[in-house]
Each structure stands twice: as structure tokens, then as C-alpha cells.
Design brief:
198 residues; single chain
Amino acid sequence: MFSYKEHILRIYTKYMFFVARVKFRKFLLTLAAVFDLLAGIFVCYVGAEPLIPFLAYALGVVSLYTERLWVPVTFLSFGLSMYGAMVLKGEPVALFIVAASLKCISPIFRGWLVLKSEIHELIAVANYLRKNLQALFILPFMLLLILAAVRQVSGDSAMADSLAVYAYYQLSGAVAVVLVLMIREGVSSSNAKRKQWS
């Protein structure tokens, strides 16, 4: 008779799948954050201020990483998405509505979603993003800055300026995350030293 671990190992080697488990609500919140990010890009396209989608995206990312206060943060992000859907016009409205809907139903779903992939890199990227919160702001920053450069070269300087502003919002979010993580790490290390000396 095989043990449970040996059985899982046999299944793993038989199918060569790389498996990752994620809470279903986090999967929905990740999709909502992607839609908020896309809404921000379309807000730049229509020439409006991208602060509302950035705040909705930032709060969505925070709700992914908080375990205790994720419900109020999610509903605050939901409120920003709904406000963006009511105030803005054009393409961003549909994206805001989809993001708000995903945020609204995320507290309802409990359980786990098992993701299987034959490509190890996909699971490695998911694990990297899980451990490095600031990457969720730095990657959009780089993408938006590249889009701003392309728009500048094509002659649309107003759109390029708007995309650059949105990119720097993302960079400021990454810097804020790094500062919070450094402060948290410093507090935890000082508490560990106090316990060691007492």
C-alpha cells in the first residue's frame, strides 16, 4: 500500500503537471485587479484622470494580500470601481462594471481553485508574485511607460502624458509597498531581538 505522499508523487510524475492551489476569492480578486488596470489604461485613452482606477487597483492588490481586513478593503475598492463606472464615459465603464461585479461576489465563494499547468514557469511566476507584492505595481509601471513612449513617438503627446502619469502612480504604489514591508520587517526583527534578550 502506498502512502498519501507517494501516491501524489506518482500522479505528479505520471501526468507531469505543476499544480498550484489558490483561494477562489483571490482568483476573482486578481481578475478584478486586472480589469481595474485595463480600465485605467482606457481612462488614459479618453483623457480623464487615472487616479480612481489606480486607487481601485491598489486596494484590490491590498485585498489580495491581507487576511484579516480583506472584506472592507475589497468593498472600498468595489465602491471606487462603481464610482468610476458612474463618473466616466466610454470603454472604461464596462471594465469597471466587470471589476466591481467580481469584487462583489468574491466574499461569497469559499474553497480552493487548483491550477494545473505543464509549464513550470507559469507556476513560478505565480509564486513570485505571491511573495513579491511590489512586482504587481512595478510590472504595470514598466508596461505603461513603454506604451507612453510608443504614443509619444506616434505623435499623441497628450495620451503619452496621461499614460506616464498613470505609470508613475504605479511606481509610487510600489515604493509605498516596499516602505511598508521594510517597516514591518524592522518591527518583527526588533520584536525577535527583544524576545531573545528577555
